[in-house]
## 1
Amino acid sequence: MISLQNISKSYTSRGETVTLFTDLDWRVETGSFVALMGASGAGKSTLLSLIAGILTPDSGSISLGETDITTLSTDAMIAYRGGHIAFIFQAFELIPNLTVTENIDLVLDISHAPRRYTTDEILERVWLTGKWRRYPNELSGGEQQRVAIARAFVADVPYLLADEPTGNLDEGNASRIMDLIDILHQETGNTIVMITHDVDIASRADTVWRLHNGQLQQK
Ligand SMILES: Nc1ncnc2c1ncn2[C@@H]1O[C@H](COP(=O)(O)OP(=O)(O)OP(=O)(O)O)[C@@H](O)[C@H]1O
Ligand SMILES: [Mg+2]
């Protein structure tokens, strides 16, 4: 279970404060797959970063299972994240001077999480078998996105947070990627929170939530 209680979060930049959330509550059941929708700027990526402990709320608490991550020190949060959370970033965040294989294996080196698939196996699953020695700049946007997805599934961790994982793919490839995420979700039983702007993609999830004016509503 992912549980957010009384979360408040504001950003202040150039003397201007923007409040995204005030006393927000949210629960995501263990093993479920939820889609998070909402207009650009609504705060979806911010919400995902809060759940990942990349950002901290101004007040309130966030628990993943039994762990209240808002009480963890920075070091403890880094260690916790490595063992529990995979993240697919809106902009992939592949390491440019590492090959496809190295990008995937790096996650396991850093996180010390057990391996769920061999690198060959996961590359086959994202149909990138022939491209394991390439560098990110030698791949198309869609191929980079698939590396990011492979990297997110290779470690055996219970939570997957995905920020528009099909945002750079055409309809056909997006649909294939969603088929893959569906299968991997069934195999792993992980809990997935996925941001998407696409209603068809969102419909793949068990439940769809919309973030609007700092409030979450189930669709
Ligand atoms: N570091 C920051 N400092 C100040 N404001 C920020 C910061 N990060 C985000 N914001 C603001 O917070 C709001 C929410 O940003 P966020 O990235 O969470 O939106 P989003 O729902 O993911 O949008 P998109 O669909 O475009 O990715 C935006 O208005 C943004 O300008
Ligand atoms: Mg975003």
## 2
Amino acid sequence: MDLRLLLPRLMPRAIAWAEALAAEVASEGHALDASGLSDAMAVGVRKAEDIRVLMVDRLPLPPDYELREAALHAGLLGPTMTGLTLGHSILICHGHLCRRLLSHECRHVFQYEQAGSIAAFLPRYLQSIVEVGYWHSPFEQDARNHELA
Ligand SMILES: [Zn+2]
């Protein structure tokens, strides 16, 4: 599976899936408490009050077969992933909520804010994943560098 070749074709579906999931979290998730808001602002988020967090048993996978296989192949959304950020919407797996993970995901919120939207950020993020891998993605490195302990 060559994700670099697949990505341009999958991108519109990836964005549509991400936007729909973000909307779901926005309506069902909870706002950050005072310490969460303060941490979000500390990692650069401008609209910390817009952040919603939804606790889930596992990160949802796209129903679209091809999209799902690509996400798993890229190392995204697999069983070891415990957090996912889409715009101001954050999903965290039960049992994994901690300051380090939340601040990491909040830094991704900052990255979305800098890009302006899910449609603007996701292509850059996914491009970096297929080019250098999840661990070496500059967006992941930046998020790791802003984790609060
Ligand atoms: Zn991350």
